[in-house]
Amino acid sequence: MERTALIKGRIRSGIELERWLSIVRFRHQKIVFTSGFFDILHKGHVQYLAEAAGQGDFLVVGLNTDASVKKLKRNISLYLDEESRALILASMRFVSVVVLFDEETPLNLIRQIRPDVLVMRADHEPEDSALGDVVRQYGGKIISLDSTAAHSTRETINRINSGSV
Fold first, then answer.
1. CATH code reported for the domain at 3-162
2. What is the chain's percent helix, strand, coil content, to nearest 5?
3. Which partner for 135 in 4, 48, 66, 118 could form a disulfide, CB atoms 3.0-4.6 Å apart?
4. pTM for the full model?
5. Is the pLDDT reported for residue 126 higher than 50?
6. How far apart are CA 52 and CA 95, in angstroms?
7. What are the beta bridge partners of residue 117?
8. Contact residues for 39 (Cβ-Cβ < 8 A; gap 6+)
């Protein structure tokens, strides 16, 4: 089987995701969830995702679709499309599954997945507290990580544009 096909197999949705999660739960593995845009992956993203993966056995990364990003950040353009971003994330050894979502927040995805651990950036927006509330309702745990603070996509883009890379 071609390696790209193996990686693409880690990008899941709907019924496929439910099957994976059933196996993970059957094995009593701890499901960790986090989400984001992950445009122009940089050191901060890698550190954040590696730390998130370390919180359990199975890391699910919710990825905002291009349409979702446009709803949230009308004034920014993504450098990579959702298919590229998903493929890059799925190629990371410690990312178990990538799931794309169209909504402004991953609330419905969190309700579907019911992760044991929700990992959020330490600088998360106040409206994200609703995500934590859902996880707490069924006994899940919320962890804040600050891995991307020293590195940002905007900083990376500025360095590229200035030629200092």
1. 3.40.50.620
2. 45, 20, 35
3. 118
4. 0.88
5. no
6. 9
7. 32, 141
8. 69, 78, 79, 80, 85, 153
